[in-house]
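re: ur question from earlier - yeah i can do the single chain one, its not a big deal. heres the input i used so u can compare w yours
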Amino acid sequence: MKLAVIGASGHFANAFAAFGQHGGHELIAVAPGSPGEDITPLLNGCGERRLSPNYYSDYATLLENESIDLAVVNPWYCDNAVVSAACLSRGVHVYSEKPLAIEFGALNDLERCYRESGRALAGMFDIRGMSWFQAIDEAMKENAIGEVRMMSARKSYKLGRRGPLYHVRASYGGMLPWVAIHAIDWLLHFGGAPCRVSALQNADCNRDHGGLEMTAAALLETKGGVLSTVTADSLRPTGSARHDDDRLLITGTRGTLEAVDGQVYLTDDGPRRALPLPPARVPLLDFIASIGTPGEVTYAEDALLATRVALRMRQAGDEGRWVEVL
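and the output i got, formated as tokens:
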């Protein structure tokens, strides 16, 4: 496939693993996705990997002049939906940074465009490709802990120094759609269809980052009665070994599965024990392989739902009440 990368404000680097591998997918063009967006990190990454894509000063010109099969979309978060819709309307498959949109109107417009386009759509939920997630997924498929009844997920980041994009919710979306959406995706994947949500979010102690939210917590109830919590923060200490701290605890009727520090532990009638970790996967390659198969649709439905749930959680926090998801 011939690919383009539009924007460099998200996890564009995750796409590099797909270029030149498994069928020789080729990066042929790059462009900013937002006005004034700095894509120097993207250009530097291309140079380090000896990739020589054509450069365009804006994505509209790229789409007019290049024949591409798939676009990796990651401009400013507020522009994810409009860029993705532009690509889909031109017959280009889309692998978008998450959330797919940061407002309900933009999400509805994108979903309509996707369903009319006949093209494939996926979100960058690349943690699904990590070894620890693969291990939990396999254990769940083997019914290792019985029926799921409760889950708890955590996302914690180092703050560092964030640019203007993150100082205003209107451009980055808020803590729940921006950071917690990864954990929301896990809860939906393992817990089933959502019913209603509630949440809290707070921007205190953000070290002079404008309106950047630093903490958020949410409660999710599924239609099957599974109760789940998710927390997200940017308070991870600077001395921590890694930038992020991802944790997931799944409680079933016959045991628990716990992911912490990249390891997975099963506790059932026997003692707590570590599970073997499968090889990590490249989600973009898996998505590309699904195009044209029945599995293609799942990528879009999962990404659209995770985005909608994240926005409903943000709404619940703003309004101080339970909110129905759909």
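The first strand starts at residue 2 and ends at 6. not sure if urs matches, ping me
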